[in-house]
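Shipment paperwork, digital attachment
Item: protein structure file
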Amino acid sequence: MSPDALRAANRARFARLVARPDSEIDLAEGALCIAADGRPDLEAGPSIERLDRLAGLVRSRLDDGDPAAVVLERLHDVLYREAAFRPPTAATFHDPRNSQLDRVLVRRIGLPISLAIVELEAAWRLGLRLHGIGLPGHFIVGGPGRVLIDPAGGGQRLTPDDCQALLRRSLGEGVLFHAGMLRPTGRRQILVRVLRNLRSVHLASRDWPAALGIVELLAVVEPGDPDHARDRGLLLGRMGRFTEAVTCLGQYLVERPEGHDADDVKQVIGIFAGRRN
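Attachment content:
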């Protein structure tokens, strides 16, 4: 099978996965579909086995009837004190590997949301009812009894004041924490946030083919958002595929004729139209 056919098959697998009810979405499988875009040799099996082994290590240290608090503490012992899962340094924060679950599991380094996915998947295997929480500029985990956990802080328990400090560190003084920010983030939205992180990384590094692959996955999970057609068109133009670019940008204008950037898009269409191939 050609690389293009493998990419299309992976995208179809991702589409089937995100079409399920949110609670039935396999988060690890979805994250691995994202990691596999443009990497036709990636197989999900080894990563799933690593998650199973992490949960198995925790299970081997538990006694029957241990309360959730004990299970959570043993989980954090394994993830953060023994396996040493940790966030990247500032210098390597924008490495795409920090958002690719298979590489996060091998390197044990990932963005806060990637570490949260590891914790959630291991916890669910142990019967712990944890959920993701997408704070602005940071990602944490919530659990029973309103416990708040920072996977990027080695499993540190958080208070509301700690959450405000995290916001201040990532966004400055302009954003104030409020309880509404602690609403659980669904599995589909976790995958969207991973995709948006990767899109930013690839755009910053001017890796247009990789950015295009991520935008196309975003269009799968958010088919009603015309911005993805615009972004796809601009990236296709960057790659010299001007005929396809004009088609995508025209689609964007049909769906959003009064968009704030409509005049700019029309100008780009004019440029690309003269270079049709």
